[in-house]
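Worked example 2:
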Amino acid sequence: MNSALQHLLYSALLAIALALPAHAAHAKDLKVYISADMEGVAGAVVGSQLSPGGFDYERFRGFMTAEVNAAIAAAREAGATEILVSDSHGNGLNLLLDQLPQDIQVVRSWPRPLGMMEGIDASFDAAIFIGYHASTGNPEGILAHTQSGKDFYSVKINGAEMSEGGMNALIAGHFGVPVVMVSGDDAAVREVTGTVGPMEGAVVKWHSSREAGRSLMPEAAQKLIKQKTLAGLERRDEIPPFTMAGPLTLDLSYTNPSAAEMIAYLPNVERIDSHTARFVGDIVEISMFIEMALGYPPTMND
């Protein structure tokens, strides 16, 4: 090949490379994990919207599904070849399967060892949180709670109040997976990014009180989620997995002291005050402990 032809070929290849979208370099075998809750979905402000048989529940199942689909569309645009979605609200049976792309997979129902992150492993490149809410210790979030609002009034790891977003980011970090985007209300996004680090955040509503707020309309929220998900996936190499030095100490404070007393009968569980049980382990062991704590009857007679 003569030098003129070599130069022409090089110039053509360079032009093609420059024309590729920024995310094209990441497009090979991109695996994305999506954990979806419901309290942080646009427009959701009261519990009756979020439980079977409640006012507007069926409609909000659709809104939740549409927000997940917005994240899926962004992941596809970023080059995702495999997507796993965890239905992580309430009974774990909220997402409308016939409205999701039929080439993804969905984790449903309970119990599951990794809770809201069931199915994640080291093969995933990034995780996305959709519809998340603030922690039970946060006075600002809409419908704020951690794991179970009726059962726990505080959930701490290494002495710090922990949201579901923080705990789930620790599970992802255990497998070396960064969380690159979270959506929810302003308090939730501020809390998760403040704990985990500078991921992308899609604020789809703003709290006025625990059961009131100002919200984007569903389509506007979905557009924002898609934009922020794509931005997070494009930045994933600069967003580190969230980890904490172990062993980790979980302090689980029950609303009912009888439940704290009973669970402390288990080996390796210490009752540190009338309402609080302490368990020490890695984040996977802590996840399984919380699943067990939620699975046995925590609301007991005084």
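The longest helix spans residues 57-77. The longest strand covers residues 200-209.
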